Amino acid sequence: MKLTNKIGVIVDSFGVGVREGLLKTKDAGAEGVQIYAVKGEMDPANLSLTARKELRSYIDGLGLEISALVGDLGGHGFQVKEDNAWKVEKSKRIVDLALDLGTNIVTTHIGIVPHDPSSEVYETLHAACEELGQYAKSVGAYFAIETGPETAADLKSFLDTLSTNGVSVNFDPANMVMVTGDDPVQGVKLLKDYIVHTHVKDGLRLKEVDPRDVYGAVGYAPMDHEKIAEMVASGAFFREVPLGEGAVDFDAYFAALQEIGYTGYLTIEREVGDQPEVDIRKAVQFIKQYR
After folding, report:
1. What's CA 165's distance to the chain center, in Å?
2. CA distances to 11, 104, 130, 231 from 34, in Å
3. What is the arithmetic mean of pLDDT over 247-259?
4. What is the pLDDT, as a whole number, of residue 223?
5. Cα–Cα distance between 109 and 149 in angstroms, integer?
6. SS3 for 18?
7. Helix, strand, coil in percent for the chain, rounding step 5
8. Helix (H, G, I), strand (E, B) or coil at 85
9. Residues 6 or more apart in contact with residue 255 via CB below 8 angstroms
10. Digit-coded pLDDT (tens) for 23-77
């Protein structure tokens, strides 16, 4: 096996701001970046057309490209009908920003897909994703749901009911290993028609956990990235670890991606640890071993 996929890094993983994170990404030897675009300097509302052109020019000048934006609005995802009007609208604006910056992928968490398709939450998620998917498709883009909160089988069943593939998949093997205990290799094969972006992350599952306690759900606390990071760091149920030190079988994972013909980015995410830059640099080298 010889990988030809480009390597990306979530610049926010460095914890030093976008511009400095871009420089560190370049120095680490990656080819692309993924950037959170929901608040602060990267909120679409805060970036004029001129600012977008300047940022794209800056990234191009570094010899980098954007693999995707993160459009994760947190809370209960799209599970609460009353919140969906503004969330769907903002998500569309994030897609517009992505296209202005040279990528057509926005990754997100939509909230756990219920196993029961007749439930109210399922219907609410479906309505939001149908609108998002149709918009994305109309402009040549994708909303990519991150794997982990539900099994690959439940996610595929949900995606199969949508009218377009405008809503697709951002495949994260560590989330599956840590939370649902799902097999990433089988997940790749099951979701092969929908995978448009991937994360490269590793982890360990130490104890069974209810995904709703991690990712939130109606009737549970909303999803909170800081809370998830605390759970990951505490190691009570699962732990995110540097690449090659966890339960993700990267030989098999990369082989599965190659088998399905995936040619997109392998984007490194490091949500915990007190030396993220060290871990990210090691992760870049880890992936390069497969080239």
Report:
1. 17
2. 6, 12, 24, 23
3. 97
4. 76
5. 9
6. helix
7. 45, 15, 35
8. helix
9. 1, 185
10. 999 999 999 999 999 999 999 999 999 999 999 999 999 999 999 999 999 888 9
Q: What are phi and psi of 131, to 5 degrees?
A: -65, -45
Residue 56, classified by CB atoms within 10 Å of its CB into exposed (0-12), middle (13-18) or buried (19+), is middle
3-state secondary structure 103-120: CCEEEECCCCCCCCCCCH
Q: Answer whether residue 232 shows pLDDT above 80.
A: no
pLDDT bin (cut points 50, 70, 90) of residue 227 is: confident
pLDDT at 12 over 80: yes
Q: Which two tokens stand for residue 15?
A: 């914890």
Q: Closest Cα to residue 210, out of 167, 179, 189, 235?
A: 179
Cα-based distances in Å from 233 to 229, 230, 240: 6, 5, 7
pLDDT of residue 226: 78
Residue-wise DSSP of 205-274:
E-S---HHHHH--TTSPPB-HHHHHHHHHHTSSEEEE-TTSSS--HHHHHHHHHHTT--S-EEE---S-S
Residues 39 and 63 sit within 8 Å (Cβ to Cβ): no
Tens-digit pLDDT profile for residues 123-160? 999 999 999 999 999 999 999 999 999 999 999 999 99
Is 231's pLDDT higher than 90?
Answer: no
- Own/partner pairs, 223-229, CB within 8 angstroms, 24+ separation: 223/74, 223/75, 223/76, 223/77, 223/109, 223/111, 224/74, 225/72, 225/74, 225/271, 228/271, 229/271, 229/272
For 13, 87, 242, 274, 281, the CA distances from 278, given in Å and listed in that order, are: 11, 35, 10, 9, 5
- Give me the residues paired with residue 57 across strands: none
Q: E strand or H helix at 10, and its extent?
A: strand 7-10
Q: Kindly state the average pLDDT of the residues 272-277.
A: 84
